[in-house]
Amino acid sequence: MKVNIKKLNENAVIPTRGSNEAAGYDLYAYIPTQSQTIPAGETKVIGTGIAMEIPKGYVGLVYARSGLATKRALRPANCVGVIDSDYRGEIGIALHNDGKEAQAIHIQDRIAQIVIAPYLSVEFEEVDEL
After folding, report:
1. Shortest CA distance to 25 belongs to which of 13, 36, 43?
2. Which of 11, 69, 101, 106: CA 20 to 30 A from 26?
3. Partners of 117 in the beta sheet?
4. pLDDT at 33 (0 to 100)
5. Phi/psi at 89 (nearest 5 deg)?
6. Tell me, what's the pLDDT at 8?
7. How far is the C-alpha of 50 from the C-alpha of 58, rounded, in Å?
8. Is 17 within 8 Å of 27 (Cβ atoms)?
9. Cα–Cα distance, 53 to 65 (Å, whole number)
């Protein structure tokens, strides 16, 4: 499957995956000032400098990178981000610092991973019993 992607800045990085069998593609920080600090216990939105055209019937699911979470106590604030197929803006990652020390994010750091997955469109029907 091909997913159209647009760099919103020439220094943005197209997502990559660590191996041919990896489900997730690494998302990279795009920070115009070269770095941004996330104080302990706080959340900051870090841009990626990219936008995607996720195909209809699919969703982009944004997950933590395990190394960033375990080594630096940084994770997506909403735990799993959802990027709908009709969203065309910059992908931003709300990173939360669960640690006791401030953490710096630098341009082109790998900050999260995205998995493109199909979803079912359903209709809910209210009933008296299940």
Report:
1. 13
2. 101
3. 59
4. 84
5. -85, 180
6. 97
7. 18
8. no
9. 23
What is the total residue count of the chain? 130
Distance CA(91)–CA(46), nearest Å, equals: 9
27 with 91: CB under 8 angstroms?
yes
CA distance 65 to 68: 5
Each residue's pLDDT tens digit, 81-127: 999 999 999 999 999 999 999 999 999 999 999 999 999 999 999 99
83's tokens = 């990027």
Assigned token pair, 23: 């489900």
Residue-wise pLDDT tens digits, 22-41: 999 999 999 988 889 999 99
SS3 69: helix
Q: Which of 110, 118, 123 is nearest to 65 (CA)?
A: 110
Q: Whole-angstrom Cα distance, residue 27 to residue 60?
A: 12
What is the share, in percent, of the chain residues with pLDDT greater than 70? 100
The conformation of residue 10, written as its DSSP 8-state character, comes to: T
Q: Helix (H, G, I), strand (E, B), or coil: what is residue 71?
A: helix
Look at residues 29, 65, 71 and name the one whose alpha carbon lies nearest to residue 46.
29
Question: Are 62 and 55 within 8 A, CB to CB?
Answer: no
